[in-house]
Each structure stands twice: as structure tokens, then as C-alpha cells.
## 1
Amino acid sequence: MRSTHRSIVIGALGAILVVGGAISAAAATTPQAAPTGVVPSQTTVAPTAPTATTNPTATPTATPTAPPTATPKPTEAPTEQQIKDLFKQWNDALATRDPKKVADRYAPDAVLLPTVSNKVRTDRDGIIDYFTHFLESRPSGTIKESKIKILGPTAAIDTGVYVFTLTKDGVESKVEARYTFVYELRDGKWLIVNHHSSAMPEK
């Protein structure tokens, strides 16, 4: 009888321990409400720094550009043959029958004292006008005598006598004249800056 009573007591005590453990575990996992009158603490958030914005009305800063590189000046003077070849280039321009191509052999500020005109030509338009009429006779020049003077790396003079063969209306004729070409090197190209041509005074 005592054994039975003891077993009952032990069983009841075990049930109490089990129930108590379950209650303790539930209490541990259940969040506890804050006591009345106590304000829960708040986490302080640091203020965010303002983000810089681009001003759409601001004038963009111009990027400086490098100055243009100047064309280096030549240090060596041209040869006489180089200057002689300039007449051939001019004569080849006559063969094109295009007055603009002939005018391309002259500097923009060149002066032309032509063979068969009394008017002095001092600009490109005037030079084109002269050769427009002169090329109608299909001229072809030949150097008879040439004297070349080298003035330096950028200038030279060719003076002498040339003979033009002219053909007009199927008739060929020749005109002998004295000439002076003054050449100047500009931007890497030899151009005529002065051209004087006049028929021989003695027949």
C-alpha cells in the first residue's frame, strides 16, 4: 500500500516538473511586454548627408586647346634646278587650257605684267581674266635663256628670254619675250609673287 502511494506521489511530482518546464520554455520564447509607463528605447539613426547635385544652368568649363603648330621654316636654299622646274610646272598649267589652274601657280597677292595686255593684274581674278583670253591661242613656252638667282631658303628669281608658240585659227606664230619670275616659298609650296613679261623691243 505504501509502495503504491509512493509511486503515485513520484508520478505526480514528475508531471509537475514536466508542466513546469514547458511553462518555463514558453515564457523564455514569448516577448515580454514593457512595464506600464516605461517608453521603449528607440534606435538613433544618423542623418544622411545631402547628395550633391549638378547645377543644370552652370556654364561648362571650356577645355583649353593647344595653339596650331607653325610650319617650320626651311634652312636649306633651293637648287637652281628646282627653280628651273617651276617654269615647267607653269608651262604644264598652260597646256591644261584652264585659267584657274594657271592662276594656282601665283600667290594670292601676286603682280602680273603680262605680255599681250597693257593692264597690270594684282589679284587672282585679274590673273584668271588675262589667261582666259591668252589661252585661246594655245600658248606653249620654251626657255631660250635663263639666269637664276637664289635669294635664300624661301625666295628666288628666274630672269631670261622665252619664246611662245601660239596657234589661232589654224595659224601658228611665235612671240619672243623677256621675262622675270620672282618665286616665294609659302606653306611649303613655291608660288609666283611677281611675273613680268614683255615682247622684245627690237625686231
Note: Confidence is low (pLDDT under 50) at residues 1-31, 33-45.
## 2
Amino acid sequence: MTKDEKFKLKRRNQYRLLFRKLFGGENGSLKLLLLISYFLGAMWVWSKQKTLIVFAESMELISPIFQTLLTHSIHAYLVVGGILLTGFAVYPFGRKAAQDQLQSIGLVNHAGMVPILQRKYSDRTNPHISIWEFLNQGIPLDIWESKRTAIEAALDITIIRMKYGKRKSHILLYTVSAQNDLPELRRWKDSYLSSDNFVLTLGEGFVGPVTVNLASIPHILLGGATGSGKSVLLKLLLMQALRKGAEVSIADFKGGVDFPPVWHKKCRMCFDEQELLAFLTKLVEELHRRKKLFASAGLPNIDQYNTETGVNLHRLIFACDEVAEMLDRTGLSKEQKELVNQIESRLATVARLGRAFGIHLILSTQRPDANLISGQIRNNLNCRICGRADNILSQLILDNTDAANQIPKDAKGRFMLHDGTVFQGYLFDEKNI
């Protein structure tokens, strides 16, 4: 494309943008109201012009400039009001600065055009979030995503998420001030325990606590490299589950060394495959028993069953700190592989049917091997949480590489949810379980 063609394309684009800002967009109703008010005001000033002229001539001590404005009131109104109205309609604060910054990091299309800031406004659901709306100039969302950290540095913001607007010609950046970055350490307080039924608090996000409701999202897959804080987050979730009256079982093939004695008193611990298979078999039997109970009572889930019958069935939670280690068949004998197959089959049953009956899985892994977690299990672990990770592990947990790209390599306790929410997990004292 020649320079002349680029210039003509840029000029036509500016005309289209001006037309769109004046007569379209999500602020169309407000703009129309202001335009009507402007013309009504002009009519009022016109009707009072003679009165204003007489008033100006009768006031001898009035400033000459003010006297001139009163004498030519309609002209002054039209000029000043028109400038203000046009400025409101077509020029949001900071547009030029934003364009310069985006151009400096190379966020341009093939014609060299830069995304144009159309407006900034507060999110209706959370006033702490500011939404930047850009005309994206044909730059796809994945290009914006690839330049996320550069955009944050250029605009001095922290981006919570990006998405297309009502049309794909617009990009929405949900942001908070860069000064509101997450703390490197946030200690747990008992006041953080949610009072809502089986809502577990994960940590602190950019706009407040981040939670997961096991009543609606029953199973959790947690990933992260060694030292990312994955085990601490797992224990945080299990601690809250215990506080809410759940019965917790933990598979740990390291002999329980990662779980201090207090966990052994509060939870059932499984240390080998045979013991684990026996436990999971009883867990599946309990699932089917509850299924019959709920069916005979005509009730769909554990919460309604407990409320209607007055029976207090506890939620049952099975956790494993390294599920890939548990399901790895490498180097196993035929009998050992069959044992792992049976364990996997029972996990798949709980993952598929456990939600309504109050039976939950919280599985974590640090090994980036998709073959170790079968599709039947993984596809039913709807809550995905990933800490510091490489591209492969991030892809395994979140189905994208966002955790690898957005979580600093030296971060501890920093995680990303499946919906893109970033949070700092709470650190708690295990002695206070």
C-alpha cells in the first residue's frame, strides 16, 4: 500500500469515525438529549437577546468583554456551546495520549492505523472497574491478548480481561489502576470465611475476594509448578470445607509428609493404591445410595434434601495433591495398571455424577501431561485454577497459555481462574484448622 493510499484510507476512516461518534454508539440517546437541549437553549437565548442587549447597555460598570458577550449573546452561545458539545461527542479524555502509547508498542493494523479510544466508563456491576472502549481498526482480539503486558505498561493500567464489544469492530478492556496491583502476600483471616452455603474463598482479586461455589461448580482442577503455592491453596480450600462441616479424604502417596498431624486427625488419609481403591469404591456406593434416597423423596440435590427432610447429609470431598502421580501407568505391571484403571473409573463416576449428591473432587497436578488425566475426569472439572506454569501446563489446566504469559515467573500464591480472573491466594496457619 502506497503512502497516498494509506493517507486516503486514514482520512476516510476519520470521516466514518466522526459520523459514528456524532450519530451512533451506545451514548446515542444522551447525545440526542444534549443536542436537543443545545438547540432549545439557543432558542431561549435568541428570544431574550433584546433584553440582554438592553441590560448590557444599562450597566455602565460592566466589563467590556462581558458587555460584548451579552450584546452578541446568540453568537457567543452558538460558538461556545457548539465547541463544548462537539468535544463531548467526539473526543474522550486521553484519546490522543492513548493512541500515541499504543502506536509506540506497535499495536497498529497493516495500514499503520492505531486503535482509537472511544470512551472510558465505570462497569455497572463493579464501580472499581474502568472499561476502555476502543475502535480496534481491524486488529483481532488475539493480537491484543498477545500484547497485553505491553498495553498495561503503555496505558499504566492492569487489565482484568479483554473482549469484543457488541460488534467485533470494538474491543473492551476491563481495567483497574496499575497502583491497585495484587499484594505479594495476603494472610488468611477467619472473617474471610464465606457465610454462603459451600462457597469457598480462593483469594484476593483486583476487585475483591474471589470465590467458588461447590454447590454449582462441584469439582476443581488445580495446577501449578513446584513452589507456585498450589499445595497451600489446596489446603486452604480443604480447611474451609472442614469448617463448613464436610468430610474430607486426602490421597497422599508420600506417606502424609506434606500434611502435618493436624490433618490426619481431621481427615481420612489414603497412602497407597489398594487403600484408595477401597475408599473410592465406598464413595461410589454412597453416591448411588444418595441417588436412591433423593429419587424416593422426589428431591434433586443435597441442599433441598437436607432442607425438606431435616436430615443432615454431609458433603464429601476427595482431594489429591498430585493426581498425575496417582494415575501414572509408566513402568507398572499388568495387575498394577488394572488397579489404576479401577481407580480412574471410580474418579470418573464421581466427576460425572457427584454434584447433585454433594460429592466433590479437588485434584491438583504439577505435571504437564494431558494423557495422565482422562477426558471423562478432566471434562467434568469445571473449575480450573492455574498458578505459575509453563505453556504446556497452562494449556492442560486452562485450555490456553494465559497463566504462563500473565503470572510472573517468581510469583508465589498467584493464580488464574478458567474465566481469566487473577487472584492472590491466602496464606494460612495450618495449626488453626
Note: The chain has two domains: 3-179, 190-432.
## 3
Amino acid sequence: MNGNAPRQKQSFVNDYAGVYPLRIIRSQTISLLLLPNLLLLIAAFADPFVPVWAWLLLVPLAVMDILGLAVVISPGKMQEFHLFVLGAIGILGSAAFAAAANKLAYATLDISSPWFLIGSAVGYIVVFALLYGIHMRLLYSGYYSREEQEETEGDTRGLRKTQGIILASSGAGVLVSCVLIKTFGGYSMKITLIIALLFLFALVYIMLAGNLHKFYLLRKRR
């Protein structure tokens, strides 16, 4: 039984490391790029314009657009590379949304303490690490395998619940933090809500980062 465990785990990996159907690749890529292009451009050039923050937002956006354009032009040839693009959009998009939130906090609300930036960066890293750890446990438990999913549903229900709790707690933490900033700092409620929304978008896009792992596994399998 122990001897079959490595082969079983490899089977789970093989099931997980698959490409997306050609019919959805182009539309999926375009739809995922719409939000960053809309919000990050606005955030980069919004008053007050700060060159440093503009570069921090526009460079990741340019990289995402270049990668996405390659997939949109030739989805058939980029079917495998599309996984890398999705993961890159997840990492760069989520980091850029977090940077946009910090830009509003420091350039618009005139927050001077470095703790806002430090706290958001630490929170981003912690949430990413926790979600990736759960993803790895789900992968090797067979959750992503269509054949094994029913058998492992009981074992993975707790992990999926934990994943949901992490996402919900992160979202709630963002909202509570923004309420505290508004309450004790006397800042604009409108800007505070936009900051919270940008952090929530960062949380959503971070879920795409798992496609980088899928791309790595697919290449390794060759």
C-alpha cells in the first residue's frame, strides 16, 4: 500500500496539471485583464500624481498586458503558456492592487506611518503562504482529481472550509482596518472604501497564482 502512495500522488498531480480548453483561453485572458487595466490606470494617474507610485502600478500592468496579448493573438500556440500567464496575472495583479491601495493611503489620505505599508505587505505574504499550503495539501489528497474527488470529499471538506475561513477573515480584516482608519484618522469614507475594495481585488487575484504551480508541474512532467 505504501508503495502505491507515490504513484497515487503522481496521478493526482497529472490530473491537476492540465491545460484549459482552447475555446475559453482568449475570453478568459481578456476578462481577467479588464479590471487591472481600468482600475490601475485610474489609480496611477489620479490626483495627486506621484511618479514612484505610477511606476509601481504601470510596470506590472504593462507586463500583464504583453503576456496577455501573446495569448490573445495566438491562443492555440499558447495553450500551455496560458497557465503561466494566468499565474503571472494573479501575482502581478494582486500585488498591483495592493500597491494601488497603498498609493491612495499615502498620497491621498496623507498617511505618514510606514506601518500601513508594512502591515499590508505582511498580511499579503501570510495569506498567500496559508492558501498555497492548503492548495498543496488538497493537491496531494486527490481533491483536484475527478476520479478521486468523491472518495476524498470528507477528508478535504475541512481544508476547503479552512480556505474559506482564511479568505473571509482576510476580507473582514481589510474592512475592519479601513473602518478603524476612518474612525480614528478622520479620513474620507469614500477613499477608505476604495482602498478596501482594492485590497479585496488583490485577495481575489491572488487565487490565480496557483496556475504558476500548474504550469511548473506540466513542464516538469515532460
Note: The chain has a mean pLDDT of 81.
## 4
Amino acid sequence: METTDTGIVPFASPASAAGAPFVTEPQRYDGILLAGFGGPEGQEDVIPFLRNVTRGRGIPDERLEEVAHHYRHFGGVSPINAQNRALKQALEAELARRGIDLPVYWGNRNWGPYLEDAVSQAAEEGNTRLLAFATSAYSSFSSCRQYREDFARVLTSTGLAGTVTIDKIRQFFDHPGFVDAFVPGVVDAVSELWREGEPAPRVLFTTHSIPTEDARRSGPRDLDLGEGGAYEAQHRAVAEAVMRRAAERDARMADVAWELVYQSRSGPASQPWLEPDIVDRITELPAEGVTSLAIVPVGFVSDHMEVMWDLDNEALEAAEEAGLRAIRTPTPGVDPVYVSGIIDLVEERMAAVPREDRPHVTDLGPWFDVCRPACCENVRAGFKPAAAGIAP
């Protein structure tokens, strides 16, 4: 994977400022910035939170209330903040186990604790060189570039640009710590579902749908990864890797068919989004002779609202109505394999491990340390200042 450098990287550490795809100089960091999406923690938080998520789009509260019922079903509490608290503790424990003296600061895009608070706290404590880990493994505007824009916005709004630097670990979709966290769940689900005399279960790998134009622009512009861009290509590659590694544990898995599906579409009907939708696909499977399926939320690092509502409610209900036995497999969460993998990536970046020595389980990786020019464009808003990448 080769690209051309056209500029320097704003808000970056000295080791990353020149814009090389893979850093070659070891870098000392003062802290880790855990960047999350955020979620409401009570009924009164739901609409203000959704206003934050949709800021700038002019969506009235009555339309937001149509989405709010997902959160209200769970008492107005999104699981995501509790999950990130647990992840923060797990990361701190793994750092301590390895003897790495780095504090972990946690901040969100859309709800408290906000990224502004986390970065300001780090600066107040004298920790001004931060390495960020965003809770999303893949390349797209919403899953990577928007976090990088958040970092730039926060550094500018707090007046800390020039004092605090923020780098970001590489997109970790094909790091073995992420991929291997899915494998036991897939093997266990298929083993439980597969009954003698019946066809093999179908495995549906699912991720959040995004507009097709956003997908096409995901990843660096000079990489030809098809109409679905890096976003679709990365998910397909990871699904294939999960099935391959599952077959190494149970040879029967080599005979199990799988496919990539999408969920949680939220755009207008006139706007094309990635398909097929998981519920639509489930309704078609009985006619294809399928009697059972494993649903693998490969696009999610933990049990987000989209997992708990769109899969555990809507998708499993669709399977029941179609007469299919179905199991939803676990997300990485705080699986020790996943947590260890994150800290592996932190150490990799600090040590400037050569590209050829970096672990990856697909032909797409390892992904870049420094995002490339014009990477993951926002079709609607264009390019805004962003950290951890070369300006377009």
C-alpha cells in the first residue's frame, strides 16, 4: 500500500508530523486518549444526546423521538458509557501488568465525559503528548475521520493546540487481537446450532450501514478498493479471516457459508445506503434452505445500542418469525485478547515497529499510522481540520 505525501500533519507529535504512512522514529507518550461515541444515562438525557449526535442537521425533536424509543426501552440508558468505563479499567490493568506507566483519559464525542474535558485534564496534569484509541476499528468518515476532526476541534477550542499533540493508533480491523475476539463465539454458535441431518448454519456478519457515497470515499482516495471503499473491503476481509481462523479450531467451519450484511440505516429512503439489510436478508433465508444462523456483530467493539436493539430485538425477532434458530455472538467488549491487542498497538506505535513486522491477518493491513490526504471525506460537509492525518 503506497501513497504520496503532500504535506505535514497538524497537531502531531514530532515522530508523526512529517506525514510518513508508517512512523520510523520511536515516540514517548504521556497518556492514552480513549475516544468514544457517548450515550445517555437517563431518560432526561435522551433528547439532548440525540441533539448532539445530529447537530447541524436541523432535525426537530419530534423526529428525534422516533429514535429515542430505542433508548427509552432500556430506561434511557445507553450501554456504551458503562462499557467504556469497563474498557478503561481493563486497559489500565493491562498497562500496569506490563509495567507501562501511562494514564488513560476517556472522553466522548456526544455525551459526558466529553473529549474537551479529557484533553484539558491531561494538559492540567502535564501530560501533553497523547496517543488516541477510538472505539471503532474500520475506515470511514464516522468511524475514523470524524474522531480525528474531534481531536482538532477540541485542541482548537480549548486553546491547547501547540501545547498538546494527539496521534492515533492505526485502524485495527485486522489486528489479531480484534479478529480473534470474534472466533470463539462463531465456533460455539455454529456448534450449538448445527444439528445432524440439517444444513449448516448460515453466518451473517453485520455492521452499521453507511451511505454508499461515504463508503466509496472511505480510506485513501488513491486506493482502488471497489465501490464500497475501504469500509466494505475491510469488513469483508475481516469476516473471511474470522471464518478461516474458526476453521483452524473446528474443521467443519470450512463448510459453513457466510455473508456480509448491514444494519441500523437511518438516512432518507431516497439516499442509497450499503445493503443488504440484515432483517431483509433473514426473511429470504428459509427459501434458500437455511434453518439456522449465527449473527456476528463484526462492525462493533462492544454491545452498543445498535447491537442490543437492532440485533437482539429486531434481527432475532425476524429470525423467530421466519422459523430460524438464531444466536447472536459476542462483541470483543473487554475480552483479554482484545484488550491485550490494544496495548500491543500502543507499544507498536511507541516503538515504531517496522511495517513488515506488524501483525495483521488480512492482505489489506497493516493500516496506516498517519491517515493519508483526502482520506474518508464527508460528502455533505467536505474536509474540516483533523489531527493524525495529512491535510487534503
Note: The first strand starts at residue 31 and ends at 36.
